[in-house]
Design a protein that fits this description.
single chain; 232 residues; alpha+beta; 6-stranded mixed sheet; globular
């Protein structure tokens, strides 16, 4: 009896020790669902007319990983308070954010980086803090299960944050503006051929796409494959 109790206690202690060192689960939370919407009577596509205008919000995302709390694309939103309020619902303060990832350098995805003055900023080629600029390779691991991939197309400086979360692999990316962009050209793409190449790459890797200006959506290829494997 004593031997059995000792064995049980040893197993429990081993389980506790494993839990203490096991990597934290990676989670992804959409803080703000972005959009691009026309304003009646004004030109919609940026740069094609002198008096164009449109309503724009970036899709802003929180990634919690081992040793890293990451905000993705803190750009244009309707109200300044929207991002801190959404973070608070997940128990995060701006000072808790360790990294800001930007998918590219357009202002609608970057104008609120200053909300996170203690965070490192990561883009397609580097990591920035204070007056130090570190180069990074491609791909680049930010934290366990979190990688930066260079995916030029929309701009030459585009990157995708690929996250292996509990419920699948997420791609935070501007390869698509929204789910409605599937199969459609990007009217602002600097390199349409590169865009299509990297769309294909991400569709091979991700279960979920979190686009630059819309709600997350399931990778239609993965969803179709899952339906074929389990028709019930």
């Amino acid at each position: 009896m004593l031997a059995r109790s000792t064995a049980v206690l040893t197993a429990l202690l081993a389980l506790v020790a494993w839990a203490a060192v096991a990597p934290a689960a990676v989670t992804v939370h959409v803080l703000v669902e972005g959009y691009v919407a026309p304003i009646e009577g004004r030109g919609f596509v940026p740069g094609q007319q002198d008096d164009g205008a449109r309503k724009v919000a970036s899709t802003v995302v929180l990634v919690k990983a081992e040793g890293a709390t990451i905000v993705v694309d803190p750009g244009m939103v309707a109200e300044n308070a929207a991002i801190p309020a959404a973070l608070a619902r997940h128990g995060v303060k701006p000072a808790d954010v360790t990294h800001v990832f930007i998918s590219h350098h357009h202002p609608d995805h970057t104008v609120r980086i200053g909300m996170f003055p203690t965070a490192k900023v990561i883009d397609f080629i580097g990591e920035y803090e204070g007056d130090v600029w570190w180069d990074h390779p491609n791909p680049y691991t930010v934290a366990p299960g979190v990688r930066v991939l260079r995916t030029p197309g929309h701009t030459k400086q585009d990157a995708t944050l690929l996250v292996e979360a509990e419920d699948g692999v997420y791609a935070m990316t501007h390869l698509w503006w929204s789910e409605q962009s599937l199969g459609q050209p990007d009217p602002l793409a600097e390199d349409p051929a590169a865009l299509e190449k990297h769309r294909e790459q991400i569709l091979q890797l991700a279960d979920w796409i979190v686009p630059g200006h819309g709600k997350r959506f399931a990778n239609p290829r993965r969803a179709a494959a899952n339906r074929a494997a389990d028709p019930q």
